Each structure stands twice: as C-alpha cells, then as structure tokens.
Amino acid sequence: MLDAALLVDTNGKPLLNGKVTSSRDWNVVNAFCEDTYTRLSAKPLIRGSDPDATIRMLRIGRIKFSRFCFGTPTRAEDFDPAAGNIIVVNTLRGGLRHPLDGNAVADTRSGDSYVVDCSRIDYWNIADGHDLQLNLTIPHALIEAVAARWYGFVPDDSLWRRRLVFGRRQSAWLSLVDYATRSLEARHDGIAHSVIEQRIEEALCLELLHNWAREAELSLEVGARAAAPYYVREAERLMSDHAREAPSIADIAGRLGISARSLSEGFRRFRGVRPHEYLGDRRLDGLRQALLEAPAGQSASAIARSWGYVNLGVMATRYRARFGETPTQTLVGARSR
What we know:
Keywords: DNA-binding, Transcription, Transcription regulation
Protein name: AraC-like DNA-binding protein
Number of helices: 13
CATH class of the largest domain: Mainly Beta
Domain HTH araC/xylS-type: 233-333
Number of domains: 2
Mean pLDDT: 93
Helix content: 40-55%
Low-confidence stretches: none
Largest sheet: 7 strands, antiparallel
Structural class: alpha+beta
GO molecular function: DNA-binding transcription factor activity; sequence-specific DNA binding
InterPro entries: AraC_XylS_family_regulators (IPR050204), Homeodomain-like_sf (IPR009057), HTH_AraC (IPR018060)
C-alpha cells in the first residue's frame, strides 16, 4: 500500500514528470518544506552531511500530499504556526520520533500515522535517515469548516492540541489515502474531475477527524453539541428552517427571548462559530440543494436571487470556498448526471 504513491498513476505513467523531485541541496529542501508544510528549521544530526531528499508534492483540493524524506538523520523543529496547517505524517519506511502530550514521545514505523496541528501547538520530529513519509498538509480552516458542516460545531483546543499516533498498518485511514493517491492522473498531475476531488478532500477530513477524536477520547457526535443550551439548539433549528428568508440575528434572538449578544456568546462557546456564520452556511447549503434540484431552464444567478442573494460575486466566492466549485458548476454537474 502506497508504494507507488506520487510516483506513477494507475496506468504506470510518471507523476511530476520533468519536475524537481529530489535534491542534495539544503536550500532546495528547505524551500520545499516551507512551501509544503510551513517554515521550519532542519538540522542534520551528522555534522556536515548533505541531504539525499525526496521532494514530491501534489494537491488534492486544498490538501497537499507529499512523498518526502531528508535522506540523512535530521531533526526538524520550530514549525511556524502562522501557516495555519495540520500535518499528518504517514510513515512508509524507517522511523521518526514525534512529541506526544507532555514529555512523552512516539516512534512511528511503517504503517503508523501521526497528526499534529502546527497552528495550535509546537512540533518537532527526528528522522532516522532511512525513513520515507507520505504526508498530508491540511489547512486548519478546512478541517474546522468540515467539522462545522457535519457535526454542527467546531472542536476546541482539547482536540487541536492533542499530538497523537492513530491508525496502524492496513488501517482504513491508509486505505483512504491510498485511494486518493491512486486517483491522481499523470496528464493532469492531479484529479481530473472536480466533483470527485471535492469528495475525496471531504472524506479525508472526516476520516481524520474521526480518528483524531477517537484517539483523544472525545466524542464529536455528542460532545459540544449535546452540551449546548436549549437556546443555541433552537436558534440552529430556526436558522435551518428559515434559511431562505435570511432572518437577522436580532430577529432570531428576539424569537427566543434573549439578546443578540447572549446568542453570539452561546454560539462562540458551544459551537466555535458566530451565529451569522452558521446562518450563512445554512443558506449556502440550501442554495446548493436548490441548484441540484433545479429544473431545466433556470440559471444559477436566478436561483441565487430567489434565495435573496444580491451581491452574486461575494456569494460565489463564499460558495466556492465552502464547496470547492462555483454555483454554475454545481448546476451543470447536476444536469449532466
């Protein structure tokens, strides 16, 4: 599993043909790390040694997949949190040492997966020089959006600050990563069909969230959602039921007999988002469903206007950020099925 990941496609054609995919120059390797992961400090453990690095990277949606090794014993540290990235290290061979909670460490071997949110907690690793990794770099904001969409809230640092090992050899996670890499085509150096690409991106985020929360002994299904007070849950119901009408937050709060400030504080505390963000997402979800069910002859702009959208440019930008495609692409895709 993953032996040919990012090397060739399923037809045996080379990926990244003509691109720089290896290097013995520290400057090149450090630049690759900064572009792929974040700015960091890499220090060879053998004084004066040069890297013999594998540096392959392709994107699936907003997720960066990288086949990587320094090729010499190396300590990588000082991962810059400003990039806002979560890193998943899947060890293909050799070994790496990573930090866990407190002063504990873990040594990962072939088939092990490790996750760290570099935007929330410090990170370092030590590679033994015989290692090879298939890594995923996922924007924290993307994972937050997927959590909010599927679980109804954004987890807090009780999840994001957990550095842990999950999955072992032949895990469902690695099978999904393997499927994702097998979907890459050499002629595109990517996935040809945007809808498939979006679904793979979302499935990877959901599977990661599931594994991360399970190992952290947190429940995404009943955790913060169940703890939310009645007025937050009722506000969510009202926003979902009346999304097309675009009620104001003040109106929602008024129906519940509370202040808009109290409603905002409740959402911040129990959902990790602001009420207008939640309402905006429900409106986009409703618009998407309307586009998928639209009869022939209706345009995307007409459907959007029927949902009360006035500034179609702003709406389209937010729609693309949420679903990875434009409203028109959703409409065309639905009619081509």
